[in-house]
Amino acid sequence: MFRNATLFDLKRISANPVFCDPALWIFPGHHNNIHPNPETLTMKRITTFIVVALYLALASSVFAQKDSIRWTPGRCIQYAINHSSNINIIESVLRTDSLMVLQAKAERFPNISAGSDYNYSWVSSTSNSTSSNTENISASVSANLTLFNGHQISLNIRRNLLQMASDSMNLEYNYLILAENIVTYYLQSLYSLEELKINEEQLQLATEQTKIAETKLELQDIIRTDYLQIAADEANNNLQLVQAQNQFNSSRLNLNKLMQLSTDSVVLLIPPEEWHTQTNQSVNSFDSIWQLALNSRPELKMAQINIGIKEQDLAISKANRLPNLSARVSSGWNQDLLSTTATGRINASAGLSLTIPIFNNKQTSTNIALSKIYLENEKTSYESSVYNLKISIVELIQDIVASQAELESASVQLNLAIESYNAALESFSIGKLQTIELLMQKTQLNTARHNVLKAKYNLILSEIILQLYTNSWTFIN
User: Fold this and answer.
1) How far apart are CA 159 and CA 174, in angstroms?
2) Which residues contact 334 (CB under 8 A, 6 or more apart)?
3) Domain boundaries, the chain
4) Exposed, middle or buried by CB within 10 Å (0-12, 13-18, 19+), for 6?
5) What strand order describes the sheet that includes 324-336?
6) Considering the entire predicted model, what is its pTM?
7) Which of 16, 96, 113, 397 has the most CB atoms around it within 10 Å of its CB?
8) What is the Cα–Cα distance from 106 to 100, expressed in whole angstroms?
9) pLDDT for 104-143, tens place per residue?
């Protein structure tokens, strides 16, 4: 299946949020005569400015478009369905199936044909120098009707109707697959965008902290080691911002490709709080969820219909052992144009034709044996589809339960990490904590924030896919 449990296990981006004003940073009174290189600091300022400017341009293109279309997942799905080449191909197959049904039904009617003929001939004799000429015209109408052929006509009609139903279920299945892919890439883009915002905020704070540290280093209030640790933290945040921006660009490009949009088109993402409602289904009631999925999933219906198609194929193969009975009726008119009489001759005939198969090089028996094998394969395929669906639902339920627990635990962890970081910052401000220890507290805070974000989007994705499996998700445009 498309969805897996580690869907949002993207490249690890350890955001470093700081929940305080950078001006509150106070460093212990260390002294060092080594000062930073002004050229290096200038290049760092320029690099930081460029990265922040790129982010602001990107963020403005995503969020600041008041006149842009609200691209909710439902609208994205509808747009993708209307522009998907794969969907168009399946729809054309359905139109072909409809024509095949009409053709199969037409086999019940007789085949009628008409024809006419004109003939002129002459015969010359070399012995007495005489010749005779003839000129005539004729017309005929004939009809053939199959009276019995082992019910193959009815079997073919039913088979074509089943094939059309199977392709219709295949179309619905592709709708759902497309919807799952759209929702996944949409949430990936939102996830990456939130990571991008976190890293951008963190870089701005780290830049301010580095400026303060630079000033204190010039005043010899801190040692160079402390300054380098803070500067390295800024560089790390700079790298994380670039990685987050690349991840967001990749996710948005994947969404555009799936929707058949141009690469420069901007999809205005809508936060999940505006279009997603938590599922009301109890994840503990597996039986009810399973029954909903069993009755609604198109791939199971398609597998059941395919079994019926193979049963019809087997019946058609067996029907080739039975005799064929057909009736024919014909009527003709013939006129000799050189005759002295103006009247033509009319003739009519009717008859029955019976064909009994006796031996055809084992073609019929071979087709019957193959049809039985294909039928068993379809039954096995159906059982496999049922099993895979059941496993997928169990995994989805487990993912929802796990994501809910992770979100609750991560939220508690985040609150404690904020409190711990604030306490560490207070200790650091009075010189009771080293710089490296404070940065470790920041890392723990960043990890907690990342875990909350990851659990949030994993939960949303699992809930939506479960709703798609049970045909209970409402497309909000």
Assistant:
1) 22
2) 136, 137, 138, 344, 345, 346, 347
3) 22-469
4) exposed
5) 111-124, 131-148, 324-336, 345-355
6) 0.74
7) 16
8) 10
9) 999 999 999 999 998 888 766 666 666 677 788 889 999 9
Q: Is 145 exposed, middle or buried, given 0-12, 13-18 or 19+ CB atoms closer than 10 A?
A: middle
Q: Residue 300, SS3?
A: helix
Q: Are the CB atoms for 267 and 192 separated by under 8 Å?
A: no
Residue 11 falls in which region: left (phi positive, over 0), alpha (psi -120 to 50) or beta: beta
Q: What is the DSSP string of 87-109?
A: HHHHHHHHHHHHHHHHHHHHTTS
Q: Count the Cβ atoms, other than its own, within 10 Å of residue 69.
A: 12
pLDDT tens figures, 206-222: 887 788 778 878 888 77
How far apart CA 31 and CA 454 sit, in angstroms, is: 43
| Least confident interval from 81-85, 130-134, 227-231, 469-473 | 130-134
Distance CA 130, CA 221 (A): 140
d(CA 251, CA 184): 10
Q: Token digits for 232?
A: 């390295």
What's the burial of 435, exposed, middle or buried (CB within 10 Å: 0-12/13-18/19+)? Answer: buried
Buried/exposed code over 438-460 (b: 16+ C-beta within 10 A; e: otherwise) = bbebbbbbbbbbbbbbbbbbbbb
**Cα-based distances in Å from 76 to 64, 83, 448:** 19, 11, 32
Q: How far is CA 98 from CA 95, 138, 310, 391, in A?
A: 5, 40, 19, 35
The tokens for 471 are 């045909």
Q: Please give the class, per CATH, of domain 22-469.
A: mainly alpha
